[in-house]
Amino acid sequence: MAERSPETNVIDFRAAEQLLAARDPRGAVQLLDAVIAAHPENTAARLLRARAFFLAAQLRPAELEFQIVLEREPDNAFAHFALARTLQRANRPDEAQRHFRLAAALDPRPDFLEAARFEPPNGSGRPSRPSRSSRSG
Fold this sequence. Notes:
This protein is mostly helical. The chain has helices at residues 6-21, 25-38, 43-55, 59-72, 77-89, 93-106, 110-116. The longest helix has 16 residues, at 6-21. The protein is elongated and about 50 Å long. It starts with 5 loop residues before the first helix and ends in a 21-residue tail after the last helix.
């Protein structure tokens, strides 16, 4: 394979962003594979590739990429949130909840806080209310 220039990597990264926005995650992954091969330490490219894997329903590769990002940037709230969504989609709710809570603790955005909420005891999605008979007055 010919040596890639820094400009080529930037062009491929930007093109991958556009492909992801156009809902072509597999095309984005192909471009990002070359960028990451040239620069395996590039966390931004890995995060974008993880998102592309997730959108392509390739959950195991998405999980692995998000984990690599979090090894390098343990305070990356978005990576925790995205890993949680990946684990949730893979039917691993307990692991997902841990990362939802970490994301909300690192960045209290409304969507992160909503995803991190504790499940109410009644399971209805709303806090339980006392029944009329148990209320005083």
